[in-house]
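Quick one: structure for this chain?
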Amino acid sequence: MSSDRLEVSVTYDASCGYIGSGPGLKAPVVALSLGGLRRKVEALLLPDDLHVVLQLDVRARRERHRRQAQAQLAR
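Got it. Here's what it folds into:
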């Protein structure tokens, strides 16, 4: 794997989901899940050896934690 790394800043908005933006992205990327966001970012960028790192802000971390807790309760 190459050392090429793309850091994507991620926030959360209840009306549309996770929103990622960063250098190399012409427009913000929106997805309902963090996995979906990562897949969309990777699909937009051509090099397969690019390592995408999601940098979550406070809102995105809270939502991820809420979803993890909800999944734990469902089990």
